[in-house]
Write a structure and sequence with these properties.
Structural class: alpha/beta
Order of helices and strands: EHEHEHHHHEHEEHEEEEHHHHE
Shape: globular
Low-confidence stretches: none
Distance between the termini: 22 Å
Number of helices: 12
Strand content: 15-25%
Largest sheet: 11 strands, mixed
Length: about 350
């Protein structure tokens, strides 16, 4: 059974055929929201940053929301493999006092996880990396969604969800996209156009809070209410707007790599609840997607990869064993990716989009 699926658009396929896999091949890197789903990608990420991208000579735009931005923060560390090891160990060890922990308790665990990831100097590494330009995507709440948790925020989120069900074009009335990126990075157009997108200079002073905001799911984490350079507001999970990103908006003349936990994507967080928009397979000329095969996912315990619902549905001792097993099995993805980028056929087994 093959574990890794390679999906390649026409433009990307031509580049791979002519150049093969090399450190400067891709122009951009995408990291999706997904919480614990990242565990299935961690071993493959290590190969990506330590093997494929080692020796890169030009800037790489890494755009991420929520856990996707956290993964990119690990890649930006002086020793990214050690950072991944540290973060993975902490993530697998997280525990809560009850099956339904409070928002403050979840937030405290999230703060501990971020401190485990960044350590003392990690924020500086993210802000000043010589070539990895992190674009940390957040969503600033507008109107009722700019409130502290309470009835008004519940109403605001409900109105945003209803409007989104009619059209995604209604979401800018409820949220503004705020992207934290290095000053020297150019706006990512057309990928991050719309939503009155505001760019804020990424600095050592705001990396931590920007990353926390990017993962602040309302009523799961506490929001972040002031970030250096962006001022006051209610900064929420970037996945609200850009859950898996609108891949049809990738820059036309570039090639982007998307390590993902599925061969299907959902543009925005509210779209998860709309069958006609959720879990869509996309065909994008500029895209290289690497993801687990459906057969590999079906072979895992419970027939799925880890996700946030595991916290309430699976006893903690069982969840910890299950997650460890999934991480161990994900080494197959890393091994097949290593073979792919070092093999004689850069499009071996590729599905052409």
């Amino acid at each position: 059974m093959k574990a890794l699926e390679l999906r390649v658009g026409k433009t990307a396929a031509k580049r791979l055929e002519s150049e093969g896999w090399h450190a400067d091949l891709i122009d951009g890197l995408i990291g999706a929201s997904g919480g614990p789903k990242w565990l299935i990608l961690g071993r493959m990420d290590r190969v990506l940053i330590a093997d494929l991208l080692a020796g890169r000579s030009r800037p790489l735009d890494a755009v991420g929301s929520s856990i996707g931005s956290w993964r990119h923060a690990a890649m930006a560390q002086p020793d990214p493999v050690e950072a991944y090891d540290r973060f993975e160990k902490a993530y697998l060890a997280q525990s809560y006092r009850s099956a339904k922990p409070s928002v403050p308790e979840i937030t405290q665990v999230a703060l501990w996880l971020m401190n485990s990831l960044l350590g003392e100097q990690g924020g500086h590494s993210v802000a000043t990396h010589p070539w990895l330009r992190s674009h940390i995507v957040t969503a600033r709440g507008k109107g009722l969604n700019a409130q502290q948790p309470g009835k008004r925020l519940i109403a605001g989120m409900g109105m945003a969800a209803l409007g989104n069900a009619v059209s995604r074009r209604t979401l800018p009335a409820s949220f503004q996209r705020v992207v934290f990126a290095p000053e020297q990075a150019s706006p990512l157009r057309p990928l991050l156009d719309g939503f009155d997108t505001q760019y804020v200079g990424l600095s050592e002073a705001n990396v931590f809070h920007a990353l926390m905001a990017s993962g602040a799911i309302p009523y799961v984490f506490e929001g972040v209410y002031e970030i250096e350079g962006a001022g006051k507001g209610a900064f929420w999970d970037g996945g609200i707007i850009d859950y898996h990103f609108d891949l049809q908006r990738l820059p036309r003349d570039e090639v982007w790599l998307y390590p993902h936990f599925s061969n299907r994507t959902t543009v925005g967080w509210f779209d998860k609840f709309l069958p006609w928009r959720a879990d869509q397979q996309v065909s994008v000329d500029q895209l290289i997607m690497i993801c687990p095969t459906d057969e590999f996912i079906a072979s895992l315990p419970f027939g799925k990869i880890p996700d946030r619902r595991d916290f309430g549905k699976i006893p903690e001792s069982v969840r910890e064993t299950y997650w460890h097993r999934c991480v161990d099995e994900s080494q197959r993805l890393a091994d097949e990716f290593h073979q792919l980028i070092n093999g004689s056929n850069p499009l071996s087994g590729a599905i052409k989009l």
